[in-house]
Amino acid sequence: xxxxxxxxxxRAQIDAFCEELRGMGFSINDSQGAETxxxxxxxxxxxxxxxxxxxxxxxxxxxxxxxxxxxxxRKFHPDDTVVQVGDVKIGGxxxxxxxxxxxxxxxxxxxxxxxxxxxxxxxxxxxxxxxxRTSPYSFQGLRAEGxxxxxxxxxxxxxxxxxxxxxxxxxxxxxDVDMIQIGARNMQNFELLKAVGRQKKPVLLxxxxxxxxxxxxxxxEYIMAEGNEQVxxxxxxxxxxxxxMRNTLDISAVPMLKxxxxxxxxxxxxxxxxxxxxxxxxAKAAVAVGAxxxxxxxxxxxxKALSDGAQSLxxxxxxxxxxxxxxxxxxxxxxxx
Length: 337
Ligand SMILES: [Mn+2]
Description:
The chain contains ten helices and 15 strands. Helix 3 runs parallel beside helix 10, helix 5 crosses helix 6 and helix 9 runs parallel beside helix 10. By secondary structure, the protein is α/β, with parallel strands linked by helices. Manganese (II) ion (MN) is lined by residues 102, 271, 297, 307-308.
């Protein structure tokens, strides 16, 4: 249930009302926006009568929320959430590009790519250290050493780093990572979601390749329910009957997720198509449809990449892409940061 409070309701009386509601066994999501002040009630609200709520002089109106996601629900929080990673803002008109190689391969590679993508306009450095590969015989990543090399690249450029966590046991290794990625294959690893919900770093949550949007948002809810509301959603292509591309980019997920939730939504056109030449048109589509950012794989030598070379841009191609995106972002009133 959401309770919409009257404009200028006194704070002390609101606090007393919240205490009363907590005493009835509800937890409260207090969202004061530009235009509305909403109390979101989480718990079994069947026991509470609308007439009782409406009788309170602080209350403008109340509504039951039928969706199973509450903290992520836009009804609970009408304003866009802005997630901050270091100095970089994502959402609410702020557009962020996170770029870098699929896998961290060497110090020279990650530092060179970091410098190039930063110069082109990427504000966050992505790179895989722990890699979830379809085959156990494929390159599994440099693991802890890869994280160390990411830190070296951050020291060289100052860009915050984004990298994937696959296992709760590895969490201590991620202590000075700036943003933790939960990959598509782990979208419903609920213990992992709870673990990243209990820590403070922002989380980039990728959509599972066969997950419905409601399942996707429920995974974000798992993280938020533990107390971490700094979640960015990433659409990265879903599995369909189409075989000419690695996945099918579900572009309509962006406006739908923005209607369902208040969280920033970004697009990963690299994994969606699996083809480097498709990154540019899909990135442009992402901006046009209202995405808050992009995640793009860039490798210094895609032909020699240890993973996902076919979908990686080289740094010159990334320069060209960013040059095309800048005027489009301006047209749509987004700030690149
Ligand atoms: Mn990849």
